[in-house]
Design a protein that fits this description.
Rossmann fold; binds iron/sulfur cluster; binds 5'-deoxyadenosine; pyruvate-formate lyase- activating enzyme; five-stranded mixed barrel; alpha/beta
Length: about 450
């Protein structure tokens, strides 16, 4: 038997890219590839890229440049670019960087085995189609390898919202939901391989409307079906749009014990003028009322969000409205970004904010968000939480896991195994994690 070929995948961007990278590794696993942690001994290098902000896209070109020496030493090395930069700039990548052999968009990666074979024969291959066939079904015959206790599962992909700043509707395409029976089969398979917690993924996950036995299902209905899967202990989902937060999903946060008290609900900005120009189709007030209803259903829920500062025509008063909204919500965690012009999106045509001003606003927003995050984390001290252990800690006998609220928790003198759930009393709060002790 010949030695297995080695595959190095580097993943950028969102959790869906992490999921996609796993699927690509499995697809190429069928062609005799095993994964390696180093590009130096790889026969194939795949960069799974992100196009959401300019910096993320630029990284790809600088990373590719670094492989020049490697490719000179190993002419058989194949280099591929996957993901959203591949989708948006496939031709451009091939032109700008001749060492790239293969470009594959997020909707075509089930075709990787054929593409790899062509690349091995010296062809340059590019596939950025949005094909009719279901890529998930094509990939379902994967090896039954044991897995860690947490996993992502894509249930919905693409977006029809067209926020004025965002490339997702162009790179990931129109919104599509996977049929429920396939998701349930995949969840069952993950549980059989050791998974205890599943995070359902979608760019607009709460707009899920996949086919079920009796017509289309909502995300809440899907969660209730997953609730019945024995051995699955925790369910999370991300990312949600405020306008798709339906009543049954809010209710499930109060009634479904497996659904974790954590919700990532991006608002992007606090000024109605800016929200309108962003084409968000909600106001600051409607978002705040929504948060109120969610907290009424599940008072201890941890709210997370995304923010953009320096969106075209944002004034100091508009930015102040974002700070006011943050003060009112009190976020447990948040991601904030300086607006980045994306070619082809409507906001790219609008008058831009002075970058220095935008930097200053980002710093002020991040200072506030960091303070809130710290307060919410500190408020866990003295409380009892459930921890799912994910790995051994740095010290002998120490284990690390995540609480229901997604805080990292370190537990000393811990006789539990990876994949175990245990009640833990939180004793202290550090820079980025909590420490606690097992409750007998
Ligand atoms: N510039 C800055 N941030 C952006 N995001 C999306 N597009 C842009 C952009 N052009 C942010 C949004 C989104 C998150 C995934 O990335 O906050 O929710
Ligand atoms: Fe992008 Fe999210 Fe808006 Fe869709 S809803 S366009 S993914 S920011």
């Amino acid at each position: 038997m010949s030695a297995p070929k080695k595959l190095f995948i580097k993943t950028y961007g969102c959790q869906m890219n992490v999921y996609d990278s796993e699927r690509m590794a499995e697809a190429l696993g069928g062609e005799g590839y095993v994964e390696t942690k180093s590009p130096d001994d790889a026969d194939m290098i795949l960069l799974n890229t992100c196009h959401i902000r300019e910096k993320a896209a630029e990284k790809v070109y600088s990373e590719l440049g670094r492989f020049k020496g490697l490719k000179a030493e190993k002419p058989d090395l194949k280099i591929g670019v996957a993901g959203c930069v591949a989708q948006a700039e496939g031709q451009e990548i091939m032109r700008r960087q001749p060492l790239v052999d293969l470009v594959v968009g997020p909707q075509s990666y089930h075709r990787l085995p054929e593409m790899e074979a062509k690349a091995r024969e010296g062809e340059k291959v590019l596939d950025t189609d949005f094909p009719e066939e279901d890529k998930f079904e094509k990939l379902k015959n994967r090896p039954k390898a044991k897995r860690g206790p947490t996993a992502f599962l894509t249930v919905q992909e693409g977006c029809d919202k067209f926020c004025a700043f965002c490339v997702v509707p162009y790179t990931r395409g129109a919104e599509v939901s996977r049929p429920a029976d396939r998701i349930l089969r995949e969840a069952q398979d993950l549980v059989e391989r050791g998974v205890r917690e599943i995070t359902l993924l979608g760019q607009n996950v709460n707009a899920y409307h996949g086919a079920g036995a009796n017509g289309d299902m909502t995300l809440a209905q899907l969660i209730w079906e997953l609730d019945k899967v024995d051995g699955l202990e925790r369910i999370r989902f991300t990312t949600s749009h405020p306008n798709d937060m339906q009543d049954d999903l809010i209710e499930a946060h109060g009634t479904c014990a497996k659904l974790m008290p954590y919700l990532h609900l991006p608002v992007q900005a606090g000024s109605d003028k800016i929200l309108k120009r962003m084409n968000r189709a909600h106001t600051a007030e409607s978002y705040l009322r929504l948060i109120e209803r969610i907290r009424a259903a599940r008072p201890d829920i941890l709210i997370s969000g995304d923010f953009i500062v320096g969106f075209p025509e944002e004034t100091e008063a508009d930015f102040q409205a974002t700070l006011d909204l943050v003060e009112e919500v009190k976020y447990g965690t948040a991601y904030s970004f300086k607006y980045s012009t994306r070619p082809g999106t409507p906001a790219a045509e609008r008058p831009q904010v002075d970058p220095k001003e935008a930097d200053d606003r980002l710093q002020r927003l991040q200072a506030l968000l960091t303070k809130q995050q710290r307060e919410v984390q500190d408020s866990m001290v003295g409380r009892d939480v459930t921890v799912l252990f994910e790995k051994a800690g740095r010290f002998p006998g120490q284990m690390v896991g995540k609480s229901d609220y997604l805080h990292a928790v370190h537990v000393a003198d811990c006789d539990r195994a990876i994949g175990d759930l245990a009640r833990v009393r939180i004793l202290s709060s550090g820079a980025n994690s909590l420490a606690g002790a097992l409750i007998d």
